[in-house]
TrEMBL record:
Domain of life: Eukaryota
PROSITE patterns: RIBONUCLEASE_II
InterPro entries to which the protein is assigned, alphabetical: Dis3_CSD2, NA-bd_OB-fold, RNase_II/R, RNase_II/R_CS, RNR_Ribonuclease, Rrp44_CSD1
Protein's GO biological process: miRNA catabolic process; mRNA catabolic process
Gene3D superfamilies linked: 2.40.50.690, 2.40.50.700
Domain RNB residues, every copy: 211-559
Organism: Aphis gossypii
Keywords recorded for this protein, A-Z: Exonuclease, Hydrolase, Nuclease, RNA-binding
Name of the protein this chain belongs to: RNB domain-containing protein
Amino acid sequence: MQLDDVIKGLESGELFEGFIRISQKCTNEAYVPSPDKSKDILLNSIKARNRALDGDKVAVRILDKSEWRNPDTEDCQRTGEVVYILNRKENRVVVGTLLVDRGVLHRYSTLVPRDCRIPRLLIDTSIWPSPIHLRDGTKESKELFYALLPSWENFKLPKGILKGVLGESGEINTETEGILIAHDIQERPYPEDIDQYFPTQFSVEDELKYRKDFRKHCIFSIDPPTARDLDDALSCVPLPNGNFEIGIHISDVSYFVKQGTPLDEIAEKLATSVYLTQKVYHMLPPALTMMASLLPGTDKLAVSITLEMTPDANVISHSFSQSIIHSCAQLHYAHAQIFLENPNKKDWDESEFPTVYNGYTINDCATAVSHLHKLAAVMRERRFSSGALAINQPKLSFDIDRATCEPLSYSLYILHESNWLIEEFMLLANTMVAEHLKTHFPTTAMLRNHHRPDAAPMEKAVKLLKAHGIDIDFTSAGSIHKSKAAYCKGENSENPHWDIIISNILSKPMVRAEYCVIDPDKSMSHFALNVPYYTHFTSPIRRYPDIVVHRMLISWLTGKPIKEYEDPKVINK
């Protein structure tokens, strides 16, 4: 269709727009969210996609009912066709092997993409300067190549432009580079001279003029053993009245990443760190990551939330502050779990644990972890009793050869009480900051919104589970969690894998949480957490939105408004 006709069709409702999602399991099928929020519209052939690729914004016409799948039944699936591509990704990078299926003397070969959602590309290899080595007895190249897909002008194979060879297919380094290129992830996104935008070494004397001094407190981090970007640390001090002073200390990354600098602009574009099995590609330059990381044994800048909490985990009071801390230990989840499994032990062997600084001992850390765990257990129980939902997908943990990065073994990653301890306090911090920003930035607060799942796909998932004797009440997040728990714990747990199976099925209709600017006319609630306001505050080293939230909070603390953040459109961007 011509663009003018498309615009008229969108205005009249004859057409609708949305982002196309191609199925990885059945690449002939693709989906576009329905304009009425019901079941997605199916594009049930490559032709119906009209050369649109995964992630393109398209205009769609719904087909006649006679062409729907299973019309006039409960499983009715409306079908449609793409009539116009409103926004496509230009020069898409495609990674794959070459299929020399027309003979080595023929001008064209075929690039077979690693991503099955992308069509095969016709490649002019006659101008490629190097020989193409084939696997023995096959027409497939030994090497992994990457090419550009500039456009797709006809319904046959699109033409691509071969740009480079990554190495031998199947090798860890080659495949890793292919993943990075295909997802537009740069190994070195920062220029060599980016350190000119790093701040100078801070002066403790100058910083203490407006920061709270927590350096004498028993503060520690609890993370996986491979973690280097230590965003958060905790402290717990018993008070004379029987309550506890809890400190949730988050790296003050906004001190290191000044707004509007080239460093800030690149970090904003990257948006997040990328974690592969064998390597992390940090959002911030590695040197700056280490400067901001709350490593033990040295003074670090933080933004802290200080709480007075009763033994039954009720918050009596709280305050926010910029601070200086001196972490005494970098604990791993396994260390914290050992403390929790041996609550009465006092004679810990210091050699079995990380170095403890600042005059504290492993016993001091174990005592604080025990207090925090008791509070976190109460918080967790109360959270789920109040209507929260957790759908945890299984994670694989790989043991790899550090020299070659080859996998040696794998296992299911098990979450322990020490993981939940950290989770509860991070959720509490994020919720408290969200509530604070809502009050003090009523038109520009950056929040994390999670909508309830659409009814149609949720009903389909519940119907599937019902067929296997599993009844799920999907009235609310809490009712889903309570229903799921009945089949995953205790006497009713006939199958040890029910939790994985049920969680996997229920995760399908769930919508993704998204960042948004507060809107007084809309619900800002987080469906799964069952809280009215939520944000991301606790991971500023690896997530850019957390830096924005930090800047807002510090703006309120210092009384220095940020002009750019006074416009909701800027935050939305």
